[in-house]
Amino acid sequence: MVYCSNCGEKNKDSSTFCYNCGAPLKKSKAPLKPLKSKSRPQGYRTDKLEKPKTVKKSAVEWNVVVVGALIFVIISALLGMVLDLVLPGVSLLIAAFSAFIYVLAATNRASTLLIGLPLTAIMAASLWAFFSL
Questions:
Q1: Residue 17 CB: number of other CB atoms within 10 A?
Q2: φ and ψ of 92, to 5 deg
Q3: pLDDT by residue (tens digit) across 42-79?
Q4: What is the model's pTM?
């Protein structure tokens, strides 16, 4: 094993550059004593397995729910002006379908889809009822 004279990382004998810092390796017959690195720049490989920091994620993607509800309200309002005279209720079906497609496309995790769709429907119905008064 060859130790890097720059960062002290252990490398293969056949290596010409350090895989940790990229510095050229000096080949000598006597093994060099590894340097103790006090701090390593971010992004460099370490042999120690570090436990990744876990970020607690919400079970609901609220941004998708809110935007889906707004899509429903806006489309139903715009189409309601035109279609409700000819075909009542069609604007609500088209708006619900559009919001459903958006939530399906924008959801990152399948587990949140089962919660996000009903919440979007509830929020959309609440907003529609509020704005239709």
A1: 12
A2: -70, -40
A3: 555 555 555 556 656 667 788 888 999 999 888 888 88
A4: 0.53
Q: Note the Cα 77 to chain centre separation in Å.
A: 32
Q: How far apart are the C-alpha atoms of 105 and 72, rounded to whole Å?
A: 15
**Cα–Cα distance for residue pair 70/117, rounded to 1 Å:** 13
Report the alpha-carbon distance of residue 125 to residue 102 in Å, rounded. Answer: 16
| H or E segment and range at residue 72 | helix 62-83
Which residues, in sequence order, are bridge partners of residue 8?
A: none
Residue 54 one-letter amino acid: T
Question: 3-class DSSP state for residue 90?
Answer: helix
